[in-house]
# Entry
Amino acid sequence: MTKPFVTTLALVSLLSVGACANLEPQLPTAQPAIPAEWPLPVTTATATSSLSTADIGWRDFIADPKLTALIARALDNNRDLRVAVLNVERARAQYGIQRADRFPTLGASFNANRSGGDSPLGGTLPNERYSAELGVTGFELDLFGRVRNLSEAALQQYLATDEAQRSSQIALIAEVASAYLTLSADQELQRIAQATLANYTAVLELTAQRHRLGAVSALDVFQASTAVESARADAARFAGQVARDSNALVLLVGGVVEPSLLPQAYAPRVSGLDALPAGLPSEVLLRRPDILQAELRLRAANANIGAARAAFFPSISLTGSVGTASSELSGLFDKGSHVWSFVPSVNLPIFDGGRLRASLGVATADRDIALAQYEKAIQSGFREVADALALSHTLGEQRSAQEALLEAATRAHNLSQARYKAGQDSYLVLLEAQRTLYNTRQSLVTTQSAEQSNRVTLYKVLGGGWKEAKK
# Structure
């Protein structure tokens, strides 16, 4: 008696797997309306490397060994990245749950039932029944692809979450590198302020001595004192900024940072990123994890439309079992004790108050929203890369100009200081030279830091940072 049941179950399983319709619409094509190539500055079109930025591991990009160690520690300890990794695990589990609906759920059961009642001849009449069964409960034949589309949507959501984790890793690497650069620059600015304070103090002592000799007026002493206090205030301000930068770096790393891993000397170079090659297509943006995440969410939303469409059609569920039953435990597996059952169920939606149509409308709107978000992600990515490329050119020119200005300001300051000591110039001339040199040194450090931070940003927005070439 079990052969008809097994045959029927095999046939309906083949139908559900191989002959189901797919009502998912064609995936719409994104129209981000961006140029085919970036407006590369001339100075960036001389690269010799054939590797894409996304293929450059972050260990190859970061040239500072201390920063490399901090980033590695942050990838292990950072709480935000840990949450992103756990979200991937959660999405993987959800996909596993949804995918399980595409297969029958087999279960085995063993039942023993003993009951009794009064016998017409007096006494009690015991009744015993034992059974052992293997069965399928509520397996839906996926004739119209509803279960398959839900499984596909869960898969795309899982893949999107995985890309989100990669995007979080890129952002973390860029944030740690930027925080490290900021700390190094502020430390250098603090050293400049302290050196300027020492220089101003020496000039104040010289001016006070000359005032006692009657060579200069009291106004020069007050002006020198003002410069000293201004430099002292700057030194205190940068000391506080360095402390804040250190706290920010500790938070990103996710633990205590030893002093040996902090920048000791100012060396504004953390990257080994070459200039971009000429004719670099904008399609490389599609490799960015955040853009891949938006695309996968679009695919998931499109699959949900197929599931919403399939809900308009009848659904067939199967419940069946095969096993053995006997009134005695010893005869449970004897010949002639086999039993089976087959209970198909058909659900045909007739009237639901517009619920199915509304669900389809929601799924369609979600797909359109995901498409718009995908297009916006591409547009935003293009702008980020274009901005970083533009800054890479202008910041390079600014740095060159600042270096030349620093050289000229240093010569002017040395000459002015010599002339002041010789009594040939007033203190106002020296004070102006001092301020010019001080501001120029600060501006050069700021420009160098901005240039390196922009290179980190360019590496990030081009999709680099999630690969790791271990050394």
About this structure: The domain at 22-105+144-315+358-461 is CATH 1.20.1600.10 (Outer membrane efflux proteins (OEP)).
